[in-house]
Amino acid sequence: MSQVTTAAPVDSVQQSPAPTRRRRRTGGAYWFLLPAIVLLLVAEGYPLVRQVIMSFQEFGRAQQFGAPPEWVGLENYRVLFADPQMWAVVARSLAFCLVAVGLTMLIGTAFALVMMRVDRTPRVLLQISMLLCWAMPVIAAMTAWQWLFDTRYGLVNWLLTNLGVGDFTRHNWLIEPLSFFLVATIIVVWMSVPFVAFTAYAALTQVPEEALEAGQIDGANAWQRWRFIIYPSIRPALTIVLMLQIVWDLRVFAQIHYLQGIGGVPSETHLLGTYIYTLGVGQSEYGMASAFALFVLVLTLALTAHYVRSLLREES
């Protein structure tokens, strides 16, 4: 008994410095993070604060030439929220985002499953093809798509006409809003699928083979193995990709702006990104553009909040 009672204080004395060392190491890690945090605050914080200030000002063409901006308070927001065109743009953007994100996630995940099933040679060819599509500059890709849907020389019109689908001779795909967004959706999904496919494929390679074999032995069919084994394993990766796709497709700009320039009607095809660009650069209403940009920021946070909470639950 005496040996036990004397050994306990010795152990406690020997182990007591460990929490202190752990706290000291944690404090050092924060010092290493400090430069990155400061750089992030300077690079992201200043433009955001500047935009918030401009959203409460009358900031137009005169202010670009040195005139002091006029403080108007919530007037920009009042005018913006009373504009029916703004709400039409928001509804149009949400619908476009829903369709584009849904198709991108479905097709990208399907490609990932295909890459898991096929042999090495077709898998490598598929991966190289998708990588080339993903790495292609946006303007170069849009030029190729422009020729595909060209009114007079487009391959799509020629192919549909010769297949007997209908007479698509000199058909303009961009003049009508519905066909305009059909083309835009095809292009955006085509550019986004490789990222989803590569991420989902990387996650699929981490699914334990033993779990799949056990499910197959227990009589689970392909759908049941996907629902109860595969999907729960890759859900964190798919959640991150889904959140990123919502952000990217909600504020898509380059593809829409390019298509508007070669034949689309801007007033009927504006999305959030092009509408902000038109308010700011086109009409020199930088105060209104800043107010609308902040509204888009809040809308994006609202749409992605559920997925952020899901990631935090997965982390905990």
From TrEMBL:
Amino acid composition bias (Polar residues), ranges on this chain: 1-16
Region of interest (Disordered), ranges: 1-21
Keywords tagged on the record: Cell membrane, Membrane, Transmembrane, Transmembrane helix, Transport
SUPFAM superfamilies cross-referenced by the UniProt entry: MetI-like
Membrane topology qualifier: Multi-pass membrane protein
Domain ABC transmembrane type-1: 90-307
Keyword Transmembrane: yes
Name of a matching Pfam family: BPD_transp_1
Transmembrane feature ranges: 29-49, 93-116, 128-148, 178-204, 228-248, 286-308
Chief site of localization: membrane
Subcellular location: Cell membrane
Entries under PANTHER family matching the protein: BLL4140 PROTEIN (PTHR43227), DIACETYLCHITOBIOSE UPTAKE SYSTEM PERMEASE PROTEIN DASB (PTHR43227:SF8)
Protein family: Belongs to the binding-protein-dependent transport system permease family.
Protein name stated in the entry: Sugar ABC transporter permease
